[in-house]
Each structure stands twice: as structure tokens, then as C-alpha cells.
Design brief:
By secondary structure, the chain is an alpha/beta fold. Helix content is 37%, strand content 18%. It is built from 18 helices and 14 strands. The strands form 2 sheets. Strands 3-2-1-4-5-7-6 form a 7-stranded mixed β-sheet. Helix 6 links the parallel strand 1 and strand 2. Helix 2 packs antiparallel against helix 3 and helix 9 packs antiparallel against helix 10.
């Protein structure tokens, strides 16, 4: 992988490869490689499903095919991780007397003091389980603590342990997704020590939206939601549009006692903003409608398939937001096929993929300060962005798309009004109508995402080679993508870019959100030489890989 320049994608590719073609021998070798951590029991689990062996469920498989947010749990916890299932917790708490999830009070004490400087503050311990943290907080002076958990077993144990010693502490069986027992603005702080992690394992986006709405509702304005999580991506939920927090991310480097290896756990100290209650009232219905549709789409995705990759998860989000009628897996869009786009553009007048011009305007100005620059809109579709560029003074804009329908629409819309704009039918993997170094800027707004969906390695190699070829030395490739792994393609050895990655948030219909990123890539002086030297070898390797994947089906 280092030789191919694909370090960032190595782990993902190996995981997907092992899922498709189990090899305990390969896993044993990886266990001895620095940088790889193989979970206890993994080799045995993979050996059990190798070709010729009876198919069994690996003991560490996450529920509903979701990756575990808790990596590296002790072997005693390595099976049956139905963290979103109430019965799992009842069974677990029946067998245990105490369990300190993620972080001890000593790790969080300073953060809690910042979140809650007044020890008379009312605090909700959300999903308390059988943790000792509430007891240590009480003994440290925070006596106004309310503990809730969905498991009656946990609440009974905690009440029995504390009723006499800590009489002011309250205990309630409650669902974290509603918290209907409590009135609006009831608490100064909500402490969540991995409860969001557990709920997200249920693979129901609706539950996550409901839980975070309930937390926001019961917090006072200026109150704090202290989220401690093992999954760094869970912090993205805090940017959902029905929430309004000032968020501070804090890394927790101490080794948790119940983990075998260091985990990337972190805390988020979230202060509720004055606009939060009005925002919640206005936007929660739309978020719930979106989440319900997303959950419906997600249930169509086969378990253990390539459709569970980040790009498809993001595309499913778009489906939900667009209210697309999807009734079967076959109905999911074939984003890598020209026929799909011809059909879609025949039915649509205009569609703005991922980001509006207003979001990208400053980046485009940085990439292309001279408005006389030549700009290629790669995979233009029926986007309004080329028109907005033209109207903003960039008069040399060229649109290309594989769909004749899209190009016909772009021409009819612009030939009279914007005479300097060109539109051509072309494959992004063959831009031979343009000479080397013809453009100052190439804009790709979701085109690489679509090409990657075709699952043809050679197509991706050729597309990026053409982008590099048609750019001037020092020219810019502005890639906007919904798949956080796609920037790894920019490290392929036939390319020579200086890459700056910029996270941006864009509209997703109905005033919703999606987290995506832009990569501003500058063509280095040696780009042409590198392309000429490395492309033949890389094309050969990609073609061979495509052939092998096709043969395996």
C-alpha cells in the first residue's frame, strides 16, 4: 500500500477484502504488523468462515452490520454487542455489580467543574448503567443528581446501593429518546458517558435525532451537555440543524480501565445557545421526517455488502432528503451509469449536487483569483453553479458531462444568455478534446463520488489522470465530495498535487445538513513528468484489479 501511495485507504480495503474473502492466515500476518490491531478472537472467527468451512457469525460482529463504536473492548465483552437493545443491558447488568464505561470521574472532574461551577446545579446522568461516577460526584458535593437508564435492573441496583448513603440522589427508569418525565429547561447539565454511542448502534437515525432533541429540550439555556464518546464521528450529530450548541471538543488521552488498547475517545462540552428552543421547535419535525425516510432507505441495504460504505451511506441521506420513492435495493440509483443520469436529467429541470456556489465562492476565489481564468466544470449535470460563476465575472467556463440530456439542457439555458460558456458531451476519463495545461481550475462537485460508484478502478485512475493533464502548472483541482475516503485517491502515484482539505457543511434539502469536504489541490511543477512516468504502470495494475474483481463477481 505504501508503494501505491494509498496508506489512508489500506485498513478499509483490507477489512472489505477480508469480509469478501476470509483469510485467517492473512489476519495472523497483519497481527504482527505495526499499526494494525487485531481484536481478540478475530483470527478464530475468520478461520470459521473461510471457504470450505461452515458459515458462522463472527462473535464480534456489530448489530445490523454497523461497525462498533467501541474498539478494543476486553475479550469478555467481545460478543453479542447489541448495544441498542434493552434486553442486552438487562442481561449484562444482572451479571455485573459495577462497570465504568470509558472514563472515570478523575478524568472528567475538571470538565464537569467547568460545565457546572455551582455544585447545587441540577444534573442528569443519562444512561447511568451501574457506573460509580454519580456516587463520586455526589461525594464531591454535587448532590442534586438525577440518574436515568432504560434498564430496570440497573436502576434497582443503583437505588439499592445509594438510597441510604446518598438520600438526595434520584433514580428513574426512562427512555433517553423521550425523557418525557422531565419538563423543559429542568437541568443545568446533562452527562452522557457513551449513551449516544449505544443508541447509535441501534442503526436507527430517528432514535439519535429524538435523543438529542430530548437532551436539548430539558437543558436550561446556557446549560451544558457533556458528551463523552468512543466514536469520533458521533460528534457530527451535534451539528444537526435542530440543535443549537456552542461545542468545544476535548481529547481524553488517559487509558480507560476497561479497554485493552488506547481508544480515540473524546469529550464534547456543549453549551446550549439562546436560540436553541426556537430552533428545536422549528426544525425538529423536518429532521424527524428526514430521519424516518433515511432509516427506511437504510433497511434496504444488504448486510455485509459494498453498499454499506461511507459514500453509499451519504447517498442514502440524499435519497431520504429528496423524498425519493425507494421500494427495493434495485431501485437505488446507479450513480456510475450514464443511463441513470440520462433518465434523471430528463425528469429534472435542475439539481444542485452537494454545495451551492455561495458555499464555494471564497474557495473558488482563492483557487482562481483571476476572473479571466479558464475553468472546467467536470460532470456539470444541470447545476446552476457554472451560470453563477459566469454571472460573477468568470466568463471562460466549460461544462462537460457524460449525459447528452444534461448538456442539451445546459446549452438551451445558456447559449443565448451566456455566449462565452461552452458545454460538451464527454467522459471525464477522456478529455482528449482539450490540450495539456488548458485550464486554470477544474471544479468537481460530486463527480468523483459518482465515478467511484461504478466500482471500476481504471475509470478512477483515468479520470484523475485527465484532470492532472488538462491543468496548468500551479492550476487547481477543487474536489467537493461527500465521501471522506475519496481524498485518498489524490495520493495515487501518478498524481502530484499539494492538497488542502477544508470541511464544509451544505444544505441537504428541507433545510437539513450534510457534512462534506472540499480539497483544494494545486498542480506541482513536476505533475506532467510524474503522470507520464507512473500512469502506464498504474493503469495496468488497475485493469488487473478490475479483472480480478469482475471474475470474483
Amino acid at each position: 500500500f505504501k508503494a501505491m501511495g494509498c496508506d489512508g485507504a489500506a485498513v478499509q480495503v483490507l477489512q472489505e477484502g477480508l469480509a469478501a474473502h476470509p483469510s485467517s492466515d492473512l489476519l495472523r500476518k497483519l497481527a504482527g504488523v505495526a499499526g494494525f490491531a487485531v481484536m481478540p478472537g478475530a483470527v478464530e472467527a475468520v478461520a470459521a468462515i473461510e471457504p470450505g468451512q461452515p458459515r458462522v457469525t463472527p462473535p464480534a460482529a456489530p448489530p445490523e452490520g454497523r461497525r462498533l463504536p467501541i474498539a478494543g473492548l476486553e475479550a469478555s465483552h467481545s460478543s453479542d454487542h447489541a448495544f441498542g437493545d434493552k434486553s442486552y443491558w438487562d442481561n449484562r447488568f444482572s451479571a455485573e455489580e459495577t462497570d465504568e464505561w470509558i472514563s472515570d470521574y478523575s478524568e472528567l472532574r475538571d470538565l464537569i467543574a467547568r460545565a457546572c461551577p455551582n455544585k447545587a446545579s441540577r444534573i442528569l446522568n443519562l444512561g447511568c448503567g451501574i457506573s460509580r461516577i454519580c456516587e463520586k460526584m455526589y461525594d464531591d458535593g454535587y448532590e442534586n443528581i438525577v440518574n436515568v437508564d432504560i434498564s430496570p435492573v440497573a436502576i434497582d441496583k443503583m437505588r439499592g446501593r445509594n438510597e441510604q448513603q446518598r438520600p438526595r440522589m434520584e433514580w428513574h427508569v426512562a427512555d433517553a429518546t423521550t425523557l418525557s418525565f422531565f419538563g423543559d429547561g429542568s437541568f443545568d447539565m446533562v452527562l452522557d458517558k457513551s449513551t449516544l454511542d449505544a443508541i447509535s448502534c441501534a442503526m436507527q437515525t430517528t432514535l439519535v435525532v429524538q435523543m438529542l432533541a430530548a437532551v436539548s429540550r430539558i437543558l436550561k439555556v446556557g446549560g451544558s451537555y457533556l458528551l463523552v464518546t468512543l466514536d469520533p464521528t458521533n460528534t457530527d450529530f451535534l451539528t444537526m440543524p435542530h440543535l443549537a450548541y456552542d461545542v468545544e471538543n476535548v481529547s481524553l488521552s488517559d487509558l480507560p480501565r476497561n479497554l485493552r488498547a488506547k481508544s480515540n475517545h473524546r469529550a464534547c462540552l456543549c453549551k446550549k445557545l439562546p436560540a436553541a428552543d426556537g430552533n428545536l421547535k422549528a426544525k425538529l419535525p423536518g429532521m424527524l421526517a428526514w430521519a424516518t425516510r433515511f432509516d427506511q432507505c437504510q433497511r434496504l441495504v444488504p448486510k455485509q455488502s459494498e453498499m454499506g460504505t461511507p459514500i453509499v451511506q451519504q447517498l442514502l441521506m440524499m435519497l431520504a432528503a429528496d423524498s425519493c420513492a425507494v421500494s427495493s435495493v434495485e431501485d437505488l440509483p446507479s450513480y456510475g451509469e450514464c443511463a441513470y443520469w440520462d433518465r434523471r436529467f430528463s425528469e429534472e429541470g435542475h439539481y444542485e449536487w452537494i454545495a451551492e456556489y455561495s458555499e464555494l465562492q471564497a474557495l473558488i476565489a482563492r483557487a482562481c483569483p483571476e476572473k479571466t481564468s479558464r475553468i472546467l466544470m467536470l460532470g456539470s449535470g444541470t447545476s446552476r453553479l457554472p451560470e453563477q460563476l459566469y454571472d460573477d465575472g468568470y466568463r471562460e467556463v466549460v461544462n462537460v458531462d457524460i449525459s447528452q440530456v444534461a448538456i442539451d439542457k445546459m446549452k438551451s439555458r445558456n447559449d443565448q444568455l451566456r455566449s462565452g460558456m461552452e458545454s460538451h458531451v464527454a467522459s471525464v476519463a477522456d478529455l482528449s478534446r482539450f490540450r495539456d495545461g488548458h485550464f486554470d481550475l477544474v471544479i468537481d462537485k460530486g463527480t468523483l463520488d459518482s465515478v467511484a460508484c461504478a466500482r471500476q478502478n481504471l475509470l478512477v485512475v483515468d479520470m484523475l489522470a485527465e484532470v492532472s493533464r488538462v491543468l496548468k502548472e500551479g492550476g487547481a483541482y477543487l474536489l467537493v465530495t461527500v465521501d471522506p475516503t475519496n481524498p485518498d485517491f489524490l495520493k495515487m502515484p501518478h498524481l502530484s498535487f499539494d492538497v488542502e482539505t477544508v470541511p464544509i457543511h451544505g444544505a441537504l434539502g428541507m433545510g437539513l445538513f450534510m457534512k462534506h469536504c472540499a480539497c483544494l489541490c494545486r498542480c506541482r511543477p513536476n505533475a506532467g513528468e510524474v503522470l507520464h512516468r507512473e500512469l502506464p504502470r498504474l493503469r495496468e495494475a488497475a485493469a488487473r484489479l478490475d479483472e480480478e474483481e469482475s471474475r470474483r463477481g
